[in-house]
Amino acid sequence: MSWLTRVRERLPFGAKRETPDNLWVKCPRCQEMVFVKEYEANLNVCLKCDHHGRIGTDKRFSQLLDEGYELLPSPNVTEDPLRFKDTRRYTERIRTARASNPHPDAFSSAFGAIDGRKAVVGVQDFHFMGGSMGMSVGDSFIAAAQRAIDENCGFICVTAAGGARMQEGILSLMQMPRATVMVRRLREAGLPYIVVLTDPTTGGVTASYAMLGDIHVAEPGALIGFAGQRVIQETIREQLPEGFQRAEYLHKHGMVDMVVRRHDLRDTLAQLLDYLSPAKAA
């Protein structure tokens, strides 16, 4: 028996306390460890480098909408229409995604108010299969836009996606023109369509409703583009500039109207709704 063991037996040491393993979060940009409570109180923005972390649907709704908003029902669509299977069946992937997500698919919407201004807000969640766009996402977007038309209010779409959902093939790509038609109907109704681009917004989502807004707002540092940087470099055989496809670069080159910190996003959207919404009848 070692001397350390003998000392431990004689001294009144208490039982080892269990320490929660979720007290800290590592910032993916600066690699600093940030206290979770402080991180969440700061709207999931790093206190050291101001990196805007990815957040889920419910957090986004609570940050943007006034209390008492109405969550719109999710559409019923045919699941696994192509009976797709790669290393796993598509139905198994959906079940896995739903097990760790409070919503049945990547796009959810709610009707409520932003600082007293009526609005429908649609949120795309990257945590659900990379926010990929399938038939459910397309139907949810269309239903949210139609609700905005029915309520005569603005529609705000918060995007975060890796593109179209490959497990639904051509059916996922069909959601691009369907969403485009709904954006046109919003425009014909004289209602504002505001897009909030978050990290990351790529692929077919960028090629459709993410870039059709009346106003495009981006969170700082968000990755926004169609094809990946490596694919573009290999195609054009040139080195891309620093910060290419990031929100600040796109703002400088005219593809994004403004880059807004998450702390100021709610107030900014309320102001935009004031400017763009139809005038009330006297």
Supply the key terms.
single chain, 282 residues, alpha/beta, 2-enoyl-CoA Hydratase, Chain A, domain 1, 2 domains, 7-stranded mixed beta sheet, two-stranded antiparallel sheet, 11 helices, globular
The radius of gyration over CA amounts to 22 Å
Spatial strand arrangement across the major sheet: 3-4-5-6-7-8-9
Instruction: Estimate what percentage of residues fall within beta strands.
Output: 15-25%
Could you say what the CATH topology of the largest domain is called? 2-enoyl-CoA Hydratase, Chain A, domain 1
CATH architecture tag of the largest domain: Alpha-Beta Complex
Number of domains: 2
How does the helix and strand content classify structurally? alpha/beta
How many DSSP helices? Answer: 11
Number of strands: 9
Give your account of this protein's structure:
The protein is α/β, with parallel strands linked by helices. The chain folds into two domains: 34 residues, no CATH class; 222 residues, 2-enoyl-CoA Hydratase, Chain A, domain 1. The chain is 36% helix and 17% strand. It has eleven helices and nine strands. Strands 3-4-5-6-7-8-9 form a seven-stranded mixed beta sheet, with helices on both faces. Helix 5 packs parallel to helix 7. It is globular, with a radius of gyration of 22 Å. The mean pLDDT is 92.
